[in-house]
Amino acid sequence: MKKTAVLLMIIAVLSKVSGFLRDITLSFFYGATSTSDAYIISITITSVLFNLIISGISTAYIPMFKQIEHEKGHQSASIFTNNLINIVFLVTTAVILMGFLFSNILVKLFALGFDGETLKTTVLFTRIGLVGIYFTSLTQFFTSYLQLHGKFTIPAMIGFPFNIIIILSIVISSSQSNIMILAIGSVLAAVIQMFFLVPSLSKTNYRYTPILQFTDKNIKKMAGIVFPIMIGISIDQINLMVDKTLASKLVEGGISALTYASRLNDFVQGIFVLSFVTVMFPLISNMAAKKNTEDFKASISEVISSVILIVVPASIGIMILAEPIIRMLFGHGHFDDRAIDMTSHALFFYSIGMIGYGFREILNRTFYSLQDTKTPMYNASLSVVLNIVLSFILSSYMGISGLALATSISALFCSTLLVIKLRKKIGSFGLKGNFITFMKVIFAATVMGIIVYVMNEYVLTGWNALFKMTVVIFTGSVIYFILIILLKVKESKLFLNYLRKIIHL
To answer: Is 376 within 8 Å of 230 (Cβ atoms)?
Structure first.
């Protein structure tokens, strides 16, 4: 599992770099303005509708497929897959039609501060973008199916064609002074992303069949699992909606600043946390289906420690280097000092909760693998209530930064509750070892952070920004890994073994 996760990390790094190039391109040509806000809100709306339809279904699909395959064989699991795809297609059609009819209301829900031309542009962007939900839904299904068949590499690479098309659409729209190309580009990117998976899908001998059986007992069982997940996801989307709405009322460009900061925070999650979770989920679902309790617990503990090892130092490093990172990545073109200041402060406060986001992702998938969807749903409900209350309070004092801090606090609090719930549900699963790892990592990351701060503020003054950042990050990383090796953090052996393999290639 670890070897595959490391490979996925490398792919994720490259994919996220292409994602950053996409965001940098948008910030360069459109800055933090009403146009970028309109574009981001339209993308957010289509993403929310997509998540409501498919994320819960695809999450429940993997353990259901494994259970059907274990009990009735691969053929029955394949029939279930095609039936589910066809049902989702019908549901997606209904959601898209509703989105077309009520797009004005949707935009107002997500950006209460929008009016005039900004509102009209966002509504038009949203209507165009809704078509892409068909293709993103199929992409998500095919990704889960490939992962079930042990194919992780190609699904991990789907961000490349998507980001390339988006970048081209931003550049062309700016050069042609036609912002409609932005929305059309997002749909085209979704189409190409789906077809990118087709060659790998054909190698699994997958065959589509037009079966549609709403009364199938597996569909009924899955519906009982899916609805709590969908409720949990919708609650998370309410979180997002509140943050975007408050940001739209606080300051023009606030949505863009908050989004860019959130994307950088997601960078760490996408590379490290999701790489492990992607590999872990089908494996632990299989263990849960076979009731392999000991290996199940050991796998969870292993993933938690691995995430601690990487996310904690990344969190501390980003907090220290938030402003120079934002300035280096986005401080060009129309992205001015005001936008840099808003975004870097939001990034700092998002980074505080980074370990909370990581734990929540791991623990939610753990509960889903046990076909317990109610616990994550209740936790998500509590999270959104806490986040909304804190967002209103903190944003009134701290502006955009208060929204980011509220999200971090709620993530840390609710991930702690999930740990407690899982401990009660399955018994001991290595928390003592995780805690020891956490304390060692905190010490090593703090020492690293102090050295990084001194180098950035006092030692390397006057250096070229890119070269300076490279030296600072490289030095901090080397110091950190030396410290965790000296402190005998057990997960550091993975890093050493990986280096040895590279040296001997």
So the answer is: no
Give the separation between CA 147 and CA 142, rounded to whole angstroms: 9
- H and E: helices and strands count for the chain: 22, 0
Contacts of 183-186 spanning 24+ positions with Cβ under 8 A: 183/39, 183/42, 183/124, 183/125, 183/128, 183/129, 184/128, 186/43, 186/46, 186/128, 186/129, 186/132
Other CB atoms within 10 Å distance of the CB of residue 103: 20
Mean pLDDT for 161-182 is 83
- The first and second tokens of residue 421, run together, are 């719930």
Count of CB atoms situated within 10 Å of the CB of 182: 27
Strands (E), 262-377: none
**Helical H runs in 178-292?**
180-196, 198-203, 217-250, 254-268, 274-289
398-418 per-residue burial string, b: 16 or more CB within 10 A, e: under 16: bbbbbbbbbbbbbbbbbbebb
What is the 8-class DSSP label of residue 215? Answer: T
Residue found under tokens 């944003």:
395
Q: Residue 503 pLDDT more than 50?
A: no
pLDDT in tens, 326-363: 888 777 766 777 878 888 888 899 888 888 888 888 88
Radius of gyration (Cα) for the chain, nearest Å?
22
Q: Which of 259, 333, 312 is nearest to 434 (CA)?
A: 312
Q: Residue 337 has which token pair?
A: 């000092």
CB atoms within 10 A of CB 254: 26
Give the containing element (helix H, strand E) for 490. none
CA 161, distance to chain mean position in Å, is 18
**Least confident stretch, 232-236, 252-256, 304-308:** 232-236
Give the integer Cα–Cα distance in Å for 404 and 385: 15
Say whether pLDDT at 190 is over 80: yes
- Judge contact between 256 and 32, C-beta under 8 A: yes
Give this prediction's pTM. 0.67
Q: How many residues does the chain have?
A: 505
CB-based contacts of 341, cutoff 8 Å, min separation 6: none
Measured in whole angstroms, how far is the alpha carbon of residue 47 from the centre of its chain? Answer: 12
